Amino acid sequence: MPYRLVKGRYRVVNYAPDGDTIRFEPDDRTALGLLLGEARFNAPGHVPLRLEGVDALESHYSPPSGGGALSQPMPLARAATDFLLDFVGVRDVAWTAERRSIASANDGAPGHVLTRSVDKYGRVIAFAFAGPADEEDGDDVFLDATGLAASYNQATLAAGLVYPTFYWGLFADLRNALAATARQARAEGKGVFAGDRTQSGVRVSSLASVTDDAVILPKLFRRLSDFLVATGTVEGFRAALEANREPVLDLTASNFTHFDTFVEQDGDIVRMTRLPEELVFDPMPNRATASLGAMLETASTGRDVRDEAVVVDERTA
Question: Do the domain assignments include residue 306?
Fold first, then answer.
């Protein structure tokens, strides 16, 4: 499938990359061409990448209702970040206290990305590769399952360090290849899949249940943490999720429905009834955030925040 090839360097110093986001400095900004969306460059000329098809455990997620940055079990979240840095060739990494950002590293490792679009936050949706590419900067490159094998996206799924999470716009053959890789990692009990509670169910007695204890799909974590921070309890979570009407495509039934269709709640136990690779999510570009927090903010204040502009960096999922 045709993707735009953009050559450049990965930038990490003074940033907080995680297992699915990192900054990139194109050699030539014009190589990005007319993507579907406008990339958000900062003053040094670096653009955030959101890596296609994968979702790492959160290491610094900030719910819309406040409460500070939240994380999922940190050993696995940090393992995904470290894997990404090593994959793209960033070495000698020194973090600030509590890994809030990278203080120093051999920054500027050369690499290239393949992209077709930009998300609503100005992040370039990309497959990330280390080192040089044979084609010319800005060329349209056909990406198939064979070429995908050299990407970070495929490699981190194979290591079990991220969950598969697909959005509309990802071509079916690439999605199928990533799904097959995730299934193999799950079968082997690698990384997040060794203790994954997404389908077996997590007892949500407090916020710590999902920040410190259980490993679950990050999308479900974000919805749960938004609700818990806003309300202080998991009671009513499933009903709020239903009211939010988050669109999804169910690949097993080829049916368009909503995320709540595949979430069950029995008291304080919450579980998903589909594997993540069986769903395709809507990026919800007309909402300020794809999280439950937008709906909760509207309900609690009467102010509709769904169409307001937001400013985000690597800390936004």
Answer: no
CA dihedral 206, 207, 209, 212 (to 10 degrees): -140
CATH number at residue 142: 2.40.50.90
What is the domain extent for residue 267?
A: 195-301
Averaged confidence pLDDT in the chain: 91
DSSP string, 5-56: EEEEEEE-BTS--BTTEEEEEES-GGGG-S-BS-----TTS-EEEEETTEEP
* Residue 191 pLDDT > 60: yes
Q: What is the mean pLDDT of residues 219-229?
A: 96
To which H or E segment does residue 190 belong?
none
Structure-token pair, residue 133: 């590419």
pTM, 2 dp: 0.91
Residue 314 lies in a domain: no
Q: CA–CA distance from 64 to each of 67, 81, 153, 205, 291 (Å)? A: 9, 24, 28, 21, 8
Judge contact between 72 and 215, C-beta under 8 A: yes
Question: How much is the average pLDDT of 208-215?
Answer: 96
Q: Which residues contact 23 (CB under 8 A, 6 or more apart)?
A: 10, 11, 12, 15, 17, 46, 47, 48, 49, 314
3-state secondary structure of 249: strand
Q: How many domains does the chain have?
A: 2
Closest CA to 18 of 265, 291, 285, 317: 317
Residue type, 248: V
Percent residues over pLDDT 70 in the chain: 90
Kindly indicate the confidence band of residue 11, based on its pLDDT and cuts at 50, 70 and 90: very high
Same domain, 276 and 167: no
Quote the CA–CA distance of 41 and 25 in Å, as a whole number. 9
